[in-house]
Prior knowledge:
Helix content: 40-55%
Structural class: mainly alpha
Number of domains: 1
Order of helices and strands: HHH
CATH superfamily: Cytochrome c-like domain
Radius of gyration: 11 Å
Distance between the termini: 18 Å
Strand content: under 5%
CATH architecture: Orthogonal Bundle
Bound molecules: protoporphyrin IX containing FE
CATH topology: Cytochrome Bc1 Complex, Chain D, domain 2
Shape: globular
Number of helices: 3
Largest sheet: none
Amino acid sequence: MCHLGGLKGQNEIPRLANQHYDYTFKQLTDFKARNRTNDAGNMTSVAKTLSDEDIINISHYIATLD
Ligand code: HEM
């Protein structure tokens, strides 16, 4: 809905596709821990629904996307 199909992003919503595992892992962990709060609450509410294992799996998946 937000990052669009293939996670290619749109306007102010960042592209995620092919992002480095370490970067995505850190951002999702920071959103979940509220160490990153510049998202107007969008990602904070999403990240709190993600388990630590989800964050690992999604970060690997995103790194495989073109
Ligand atoms: C499981 C689903 C999602 C994942 C894995 C995800 C992942 C991410 C990541 C890794 C970033 C940081 C990107 C960067 O720093 O380059 C980000 C930023 C962002 N995401 Fe998501 N996202 C998800 C769902 C959503 C949804 C549903 C919305 C809208 C309601 C959303 C809106 C945003 C926005 C607005 C930003 C930019 C925050 C800023 O201004 O820096 N995301 N997302």
